[in-house]
Structures are given as C-alpha cells and as structure tokens.
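User: I'm new to structure prediction. If I give you an amino acid sequence, what do you actually give back? Let's try with this one:
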Amino acid sequence: MTGYNFVTWLEALTGESRTRLARRLGVSPTLLSMVANGQRPVTPHLADAAAQQLSLDRQMVYQKAGLPYPPPAELTEAPPPDLPEPAAPEAGGDLARLQETLNLLRNPDYALEYALAGRLPARSIEKLKRIVALELEYSAAPSAMPALPSRERRF
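Assistant: Good question. You get back a string of structure tokens that encode the predicted 3D arrangement of the chain. For your 155 residues, that looks like this:
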C-alpha cells in the first residue's frame, strides 16, 4: 500500500480531515500530506501512533502501511544504552545525576547513541559515529590532512 492509500484509509476509517488526523497522531499536517503524496515514507513511528491513537490492531496497521511486522528490533523505540533513565525531579533536585548524564552526553559516541537510538539501525549509528570521530580528528589537527594536488593548467 502506498502512503496515499495508507493516509486515505486512515481518513476513511476515522471520518476525520487530514489536519485533524495529523493532530490526533501527533504529527504535523504537512508531514501527513507528504506521506500521502509519496514524498515521505510511512515510518514505524507513524504506524505505531496510528495503532495506539486510533485503537487499531498494530499488525493490521503495519500491513496497511506496507511495513514488515513485527518491526525489526533495531527500529523499535528503546532507551539508549549506557545512559541512566531520566528521573522525575525531586524537591531538592538531583544535581549529581544530571551532571553524570551531561558528562556522558559530552562524549560524541554517547550523544549519537542517545539521539538516534530507535530511529536508525545500529549499523548506521556506528557509521555516523566513525564519521564524527574522523571529523573531530581532522578539525583538531587540520595540518594532518594531506594537501590536495594543485590543478594548474599549462598551455
């Protein structure tokens, strides 16, 4: 099923306008229109929102969206590894815990894992971590980059 068919199926099922349906699903009307017009794919996040907010069977929604069911484990929402779960703030605050989380997030590897966990496959996150490491390495020592040969024209 295409994005257009998925969105029109949801609209017909609920009897709601695209704008109202988008608000109900927690996405922008622009995003929902882009999915309907084939400019953006139906994502597991959108399918899960539809199943939950519209009280529909998750497997049926995934089928209508043209997504594999069950979704691959690396695409499901999961808390990022090695980071403490956020805690409800106490009256006096939990400054030590916040400082620990901040220190972990200063490490680019942890920050990428935290930001992308559940949004990208683990392999893609590892590639991005390598790119960031190379960027940091080269930006710290620009003289370490090899000089490009000049392209002078001789007539």
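You can read the tokens as a compact description of the fold. Here is one thing that stands out. The mean pLDDT is 76.
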